[in-house]
């Protein structure tokens, strides 16, 4: 009898221990959970049969009624899920796993009190059905992994937070995003490769002052892009094919005050149709032939001639920092007293304007 009782107690102990172990799953109020830690007890959400799921900050596991803090949305949690359309998360959830919203119909992710999400793993919202402005979803994020919102066709806008220190590659690739403001995320020094690749609807972006390099293919095939604001006074280096498929001649580049000349002389940035700091606007459209204008010789040792068949000629010469050096209505400009380097000539006529860089030897 004692032996049988001992065996039963041993069996019961093992059963209870197993029910409360890491990796075990249970369902509470039609939301599925998996235990991820037992000291203290923590769980992640791994599914739901609800249409609208309001996730509590704590849930009791069913065997020992041990309270478990809900801290994560697990990998593949709602992949696939054709029922759940709205998910409300508590502030205790600090992490979004790999591909939890892929092939799901979840349209909105909101928060009961405050947003606690710090980490979005690789492909956190890849191919999701999330719609609208996603700023609230990432408002406290410190890290967004590779492909974070890749292929999310219904997102429209994002403003990244000051807390963001890590941004993976292809985060917004092939999404429906229209506008992006990255200006607050000044801990990031590189716009990673393929960040906005194939975002065919993207029309404006603001790049933070800390960025010193634009990754390869960052804006490739962003055919609707017509406004780029850069907040770094020093032009960032631009990786291979970063703007391939963008008609830069039709786009406006907004730069820091006094830096139009720097950007007009910088590789790739020089190709923007309009470069402005709000005060000086340089148009770099290739209008030489259309306006019957020609600047020569270029390079020059001092004299620049302007062949002009138009009326009302106005010429302004800027240095590399965008400072105005001279203004004239003459078609023969003498810059022989200026130091060797690149100068920007803005030529205005009754038919339009031309901006051209001239190299002085």
Automatic annotation (TrEMBL):
Residues 295-358 form the Secretion system C-terminal sorting domain. The keyword Signal applies. InterPro entries: LRR_5 (IPR026906), LRR_dom_sf (IPR032675), Secre_tail (IPR026444), Surface_bspA-like (IPR053139). Residues 1-19 form the signal peptide. Pfam families: LRR_5, Por_Secre_tail. Keywords: Signal. This is Leucine-rich repeat protein. It comes from Algibacter amylolyticus.
